[in-house]
Amino acid sequence: MNASTLSLAPMMEYTDRHFRHMLRLLSSETLLYTEMVAANTLYYERVESIKAYQEQHPDATELEATSNYDDSFLQRIVRQSGIHAPPAEGPSVLQLGGSNPDLMFKAVETLMEMTDRGYCDYTALNLNTGCPSPKVAGKGCFGAALMDSPEIVAQLVKAMHDGCQGQLPVTVKCRIGTDTNEKFYKNSYAQIDEKEEYARLCHFIETVASSGVVTDFTIHARIAVLSRSFSPADNRKIPPLKYKYVRQLVNDYPDLTFSLNGGIENLAQVQEELEACPGLKGCMVGRSLAADPWSFAMADRLLFNKTPNQDKGTQLNNRLEVLKAFGKHADEEEARDDPAKVRRFLLKAIAPLFAGERNSKQFRVALDKFAVSARKGMNIEGQPPISELIVQCAMDHLSEEVLLRSREESYERTLAMIEHDWKKHITVSSSRSLAVEEWQEQRKIECDGSYERMLATGDGDEHNDDLTVESPNQEIASL
Predict the structure, then answer these.
(1) Beta strand ranges found along 248-341 (DSSP E)
(2) E strand spans, 330-436
């Protein structure tokens, strides 16, 4: 699979099918990643569902049981939007996590069965070897800890390839290494032997690529600190970015493709990184894209050279049109599923669409009221369709100028803000946008430790309609 010029990082409780659907309305080309799915959850859910069917139908043959079991929970994990009606999700990657090749093989077989049933149609698979959470790295050599065992990674990607019978390309997401060989301390790390550190990264790349399965790597250009009690947030902020390693990989391994992850804030920076390293295939963005998706609405034109006439996605030229288009998806989802379960995920997907705009917080609060009323079982019969409620929220709280401002006009405003910050010597690396800061605070409220609890148990959250099972955060994707 050729790497995409721009990709959305897998993010816990964010890159579900609803958020991906919203982003697809903004860009038809951006490569979209799912939340990370635990391989054991995917496989064992199928096993338990078949077992339940057999208990209910003791005379059923094995073929009948495997053909007719209730797959509703599996649908929650892997289902994509637009499978039976446009717009289709398009270029999209299911990210898997695990350390057992046998379970990984069976998990991918389960995914392909769900594909045959018409619930999903991913264009690639990805193995997460970059998650540094101690709940992950310390549990069965999972996530970033796998970077210390590249031979196991080679077995895992081979299992993924065999599980789908080679129908889907398999890719790897990793960091530049771990601190296993030398415990991380911020001051002493500055004096580390970078030749040795880069050599270890090359060993990982070469070993995984030797499987003959993987040619595509996305690299978060920081080490993963596993020897200390670093949170995922610490692991994405404290270790310094080393883009030079990724650029060197591009030069040293011309037969492989590499994408850069970590610290990418906006489209202008994506363009800068691609220009700085012509062989780099793309950039992966997490927090910034989740916090302010409209600021990336010009991606198809600026990065993929698309025009409105060439691309259906860019024909939605303002956010009011995007809300109306998303409303059709929301109505379909609520017709298919219980609004009490699905509404908050639908509304959360569009909440950041007006980040940084006047009254954007009031818009989010209004959406949340509708989500809470459905979740608490309040009577919503007689209410207008959710699509109408979404548009009404926007009309009540946002100005016509904001709602109808085009992609081009919005991007020009963004560039002006970047130039203003530059003139004030405010760097991207030292100053997060207000939108990202607000998004991070909201994440703390919404997640309240659910990710860590799931990693500790290895179980899915039956109360979370689309939650797979891991990917510590928007950025664990980015990790």
Answers:
(1) 257-261, 282-285
(2) none
The lowest-confidence range among 97-101, 336-340, 421-425 is 421-425
Helix 17-26 crosses helix 339-350 at what angle (to 10 degrees)? 40
460: left (phi over 0), alpha (psi -120 to 50) or beta: beta
Residue with tokens 């970047």: 418
Under DSSP, the state recorded for 470 is B
Residue that the structure tokens 């803000």 belong to: 417
User: Is residue 277 among the annotated active site residues?
Assistant: no
Q: With contact defined as beta carbons under 8 Å apart, do 175 and 153 qualify?
A: no
| pLDDT tens string 353-377 | 999 999 999 999 999 988 887 766 6
Task: Quick: pLDDT tens for 77-117.
Answer: 999 988 766 668 999 999 999 999 999 999 999 999 999 99
The predicted structure's pLDDT at residue 309: 60
pTM of the model: 0.88
Residue 431 has pLDDT above 50, yes or no: no
- Percent helix, strand, coil in the chain, to 5, is 55, 10, 35
Task: Please state, in angstroms and rounded to a whole number, the distance separating the CA atoms of residues 288 and 33.
Answer: 15
Contacts (Cβ under 8 Å, ≥6 apart) of 294: 26, 319, 353, 354, 355, 410
Nearest alpha-carbon partner for 355 in 420, 279, 283, 441: 441
- Angle at Cα 77 formed by Cα 72 and Cα 78, nearest 5°? 95
CA pair distance 313, 137, nearest whole angstrom: 39
Catalytic one of 120, 131, 164, 277: 131
Q: Which pLDDT band, with edges at 50, 70 and 90, does 13 fall under?
A: confident
